[in-house]
Amino acid sequence: MNTDQHLKFSPSIFTLPLLFVFAIWFIYWLEIKFGWNFNKFGVFPRNFSGLKGVFFSPFIHSDTKHLFNNSVPLFVLSACLFYFYKEMSFKVLIYGGIITGLLTWIIARESYHIGASGIVYLLFSFVLFSGIIKKNYRLVAVSFITIFLYGSMIWYVFPIKEGMSWEGHLSGLLTGFALALFYRKKGIVQEKFEFSQTAFDTMFDDEGNYIPPVLEEEIELQEIKYNYIYKEEE
């Protein structure tokens, strides 16, 4: 399947990211409306009951700022995923989300880790590294755009801000890179150019030696007939 067949527009490219963003805003609205607190459904490291956060934590946010900061990159990066990597998009989201959550559960501090930022870093890392690994010029362009828009995110995989789950960010970044390697031969790959042979190419052999053309000309000599007219002597 060529690149143009891969890059066919579908309404699901925007519909699914919108549903995801709507879901996290709706759950936050429920918390505000009814005074609920879903933080206990986040990832709590190295505790068996904390494993439920692997599935629920991406939908839970602490405040409006936290929610808004995740919503925009979540929509943009997931739309890129569904458009440029549609064949493996659901696998990256589902498997990547689970692996990110489990890795956070293993390495993080003992606290509730919530928010979709782990998924955001997963998508950021996958889109960034996959384009570079595949060496397709369109995907490489998407990678550079991703760096331009969200390159500053890389600093938040380090513990530079108190109260931020840098472990979840790091887990998403590592998982996205691993999946980019795993799916490097799936979907759009580096295009191989095939050169068509021209008349000029036939003038050289396989070793590059010049082969002079053989000119075959058929020259037809016309038969010349002479008629003699004898002049009578006077």
TrEMBL record:
Keywords recorded for this protein, A-Z: Hydrolase, Membrane, Protease, Transmembrane, Transmembrane helix
EC identifiers of the protein: 3.4.21.105
Membrane topology: Multi-pass membrane protein
Gene Ontology molecular functions: peptidase activity
GO biological process: proteolysis
Signal peptide (residue range): none
Subcellular location: Membrane
Membrane-spanning intervals of the chain: 12-30, 67-85, 92-108, 114-132, 139-158, 164-183
Pfam families, per database record: Rhomboid
Presence of keyword Transmembrane: yes
Residues covered by the Peptidase S54 rhomboid domain: 54-185
Domain of life: Bacteria
Family, as annotated: Belongs to the peptidase S54 family.
Name this protein carries in UniProt: Rhomboid family intramembrane serine protease
Annotated source species: Tenacibaculum tangerinum
